[in-house]
Automatic annotation (TrEMBL):
Keywords: Cell inner membrane, Cell membrane, Membrane, Transmembrane, Transmembrane helix, Transport. The keyword Membrane applies. GO terms for cellular component: plasma membrane. The chain crosses the membrane at residues 20-36, 48-72, 93-112, 132-151. The lineage of its organism: Bacteria, Bacillati, Bacillota, Tissierellia, Dethiosulfatibacter. This is TRAP-type C4-dicarboxylate transport system, small permease component. It is a multi-pass membrane protein.
């Protein structure tokens, strides 16, 4: 069972690393196209209207896929003043409860974003005609990744903890 959890964790790390690479690429592209827009606007007194649609798309992908890396690395903000005072058995229960609540939330978010994607087929942005599903897909990818991350965390804290007893 330890090997299964370990292999699952390695696959999730690979997924998160790929998402982080996509996030960084989106950031670089965002900077480049906005620098280009600023150059064109200041040099030729023209504005490229579709830059805003592309910028928003790149920001959405950058933020949502980058957030997966933050969650994976456990760099989220937690206030543990009360939690730290509990005995380890209660902490274990609270951790399991937290993982379950987070997984349920992201399952609901996955279904909601999938329904939104289905309803957006055929719709695009006004200026660049970018399909709206491209924007919402980042939310779905992120939600599924967060589910996998927390399933892995749940398995590590429950299955491996019980195996160590």
């Amino acid at each position: 069972m330890d090997k299964l959890v370990s292999n699952f964790g390695k696959k999730i790390k690979q997924i998160v690393d790929i998402q982080m690479l996509i996030s960084v690429i989106a950031l670089v592209l965002l900077i480049l196209i906005n620098a280009y827009e600023i150059f064109v606007r200041n040099t030729f007194d023209k504005s490229i209207i579709w830059i805003q649609d592309i910028s928003i798309l790149l920001m959405v992908w950058m933020v949502f896929l980058g957030f997966s890396k933050i969650v994976y690395n456990k760099n989220t903000i937690r206030i543990t003043v009360v939690y730290d005072k509990f005995p380890s058995i209660i902490k274990s229960f609270l951790d399991c409860f937290r993982f379950i609540v987070i997984i349920i939330f992201f399952i609901i978010l996955s279904f909601a974003s999938y329904k939104l994607i289905v309803s957006q087929y055929g719709q695009g942005t006004t200026t660049a005609s970018i399909p709206l599903v491209y924007y919402t897909s980042a939310v779905l990818v992120n939600a599924i990744t967060i589910i996998l991350i927390y399933i892995n965390e749940f398995m590590k804290t429950t299955i491996l903890r019980q195996g160590g007893r």
